[in-house]
Amino acid sequence: MNFIRSIVGKMWLATVILVVVTFIVLGGFLTQLMENFYYNLKQQEMVQDGRRLAQSISQGDNYAVDQLKILEDIIGSSVMVVNRDGLVKSCGGMMGMQPGTKLNTDDVKRVLDGETVTTRGFNAQFDMAMLNTAVPIKHQDKVIGAVLIYTPVQPISQTIADMRRIILFAGFGALMLATVLGFFMTKRLSLPLLQMKDIAHRMASGDFKGRMPIKGDDEIGLLGNSLNFLAGELENHTEALSQEKEKFANIVSSMSDGVITFDSSGNTIFLNDQAKELLHLSDEKLGQEQSVKFNQWMTRIMDDGSSIKGELITSNKIIAVRMAPLWDKEQPVGAVALLQDVTKERELERLRKEFLASVSHELRTPLTYLQGYAEAMQDGMAERPEDREQYIKIFLDETLRLRRLVNDLMDLTQMENGKMAMNMDMLDLGALAQQVTEKMFPFSVEKNVRLLCTAAEGILVYGDADRLHQVLVNLIDNALRHTKAGEKITISVTKNEAAEIKIKDTGSGIPEKELDYVWERFYKVDKARTRKDSGTGLGLAIVKNIIDGHDGKVFVTSEVGIGTEFTCILPLADSGKIQKKAVPHIDSENERKYNRS
Ligand code: ATP
Ligand code: MG
């Protein structure tokens, strides 16, 4: 900082100016006083000398030039005596005026009027500044002449000049002293002020640790004390505030929902990590579309102070937003938004609706058939025995279809709710595969499809035989449905780190984009299949649930026109990975058995 602008500089400058002004005023006053004093003293001396001389002349002494010269030497001045008419009677050697010379100056006129005259000024006769004194010589109260005394000013003014010089030197010395002392004193005086300034600066930047060392109980000491008290109080308050803020931040950041706060202009003030994650933000800046949405809501909130419920849709999420105003003295000054990921809820809702629609659809078709044929029979349209037989067969088919649908749905619901009991036991997967192949053989013959089983016996798994039977039946049934006459289906069971069942066909195949969806309930790749060939779309959903229930994996690979291969992987019984589940026994003769007749 500029020295003169600092407090030390200002105080130092003030001291120096004070000293200089004091000396100028005091010096001027003193020299003037001295000058007056010396001149007055000299002039009084001259008047007295003049009076004594005038008195002796009025008493008849007649001073000749020589006498005046002696007198001049004694008093150190020039002396001249003039008569009543202003004519020089006698004059000392210093002036060298001839007797009879007429003097006509103002001083002479005034003195001859009886006045004692003292003047100072330049005298042309002496060609220098002189003190002039003129004393009238009176005889019986009449002016009979005058004594004129002239003394040069120079010795007096020399003395005064010497004095002035002394005063100047003294002043300069004092100034030097004042400069040095003033600097150190102001420095010392301003040091605590500067310390206070530093402490105040630190306080402004949030550091309240600074304290003033108190060295006295003067005003600066008191100020320091007050500053220390202020710093202490502020420290306590900010500490409490930051604790509160931390608590709040902890609460907000540990919330599972996203939180964003906005100021009155709609700028974000705070976003917790969850909000950033939900909105896919890397920093505190909202995306273009999001800003537009939030700004619309903010405008409504600022207008009427109401809370708002809305929804934001990002690339892969649906976010429910609840936004409420932040109040300050009944005036909305911002808003807080709570963000919740409702993607799963919405998806579940969608699936539930779809499921209901699919179930209704699947139920409606057989019911329509049943109703139609029943009405036809009632109307006597099946009079011939073979017609009746055909109608009854349709009734039976549709009833079976309905029953299978209801059974599959019940199974699925139970499995998905985790309520499906599994009758776990050690079983030979190879033997099971052969058994199912045998059972399915007649249907392959019916379709003229070759059904091959290359399952080796002795591959032991820990599982529910009925359920795994159901898995194989469903997969072989699918393969049979989508394989044309003359083609082939291979069932293999192998053992590696786990048991692996593969059902491979050379059928129509499944388009790649559909592969992920075949496990969903009611999902059918070819929606336009004939009613006879078509299933309900629940088979693979059941397969997946059963394999999941065995801690296994199931996946599919397929190529359109080439064929499809389903693979189920199950942990081996001796692998140590199987945990025995306590399950009640299920009647193996229940409806879950394959029945398509
Ligand atoms: P359900 O099995 O309930 O009687 P579904 O066979 O139609 O009916 P899923 O077994 O779940 O239902 O099969 C779903 C869909 O996957 C089928 O509709 C079919 O389009 C396709 N799919 C399944 N297996 C094969 C396969 N081996 N070859 C070609 N497409 C298949
Ligand atoms: Mg099926």
How does CATH name the architecture of the largest domain? Answer: 2-Layer Sandwich
Q: How many strands, which pairing sense, and closed or not: the largest β-sheet?
A: 5 strands, antiparallel
Number of strands: 17
Mean pLDDT: 85
Distance between the amino and carboxyl termini: 104 Å
Give the cofactors and ligands. Answer: adenosine-5'-triphosphate, magnesium ion
Shape: rod-shaped
Which key terms come to mind for this protein?
597 residues; alpha+beta; Beta-Lactamase; Helix Hairpins; 4 domains; five-stranded antiparallel β-sheet; 12 helices; 17 strands; rod-shaped; disordered C terminus; binds adenosine-5'-triphosphate
Structure description:
With about 600 residues, the chain is α+β, with helices and mostly antiparallel strands. The chain folds into four domains: about 10-160, Beta-Lactamase (2-Layer Sandwich); about 255-340, Beta-Lactamase, CATH 3.30.450.20; about 345-415, Orthogonal Bundle (Helix Hairpins), CATH 1.10.287.130; about 420-595, Heat Shock Protein 90. It is about 50% helix and about 20% strand. The protein contains twelve helices and 17 strands. The chain has helices at about 5-60, 65-75, 105-110, 155-205, 220-255, 275-280, 290-305, 345-380, 385-415, 430-445, 465-480, 540-550, and strands spanning about 80-85, 90, 115-125, 130-140, 140-150, 260-265, 270, 310-315, 320-330, 330-340, 425-430, 450-455, 460-465, 490-495, 500-505, 555-560, 565-570. The strands form four sheets. A five-stranded antiparallel sheet has the order 2-1-5-4-3, with helices on both faces. A five-stranded antiparallel sheet has the order 7-6-10-9-8, with helices on both faces. Strand 6 (about 260-265) and strand 7 (about 270) form a beta hairpin. Helix 8 (about 345-380) runs antiparallel to helix 9, helix 9 (about 385-415) runs parallel beside helix 12 and helix 10 runs parallel beside helix 11. It starts with 6 loop residues before the first helix and ends in a 27-residue tail after the last strand. The relative contact order is 0.05. The chain binds adenosine-5'-triphosphate (ATP) and magnesium ion. Adenosine-5'-triphosphate binds near residues 508 and 539.
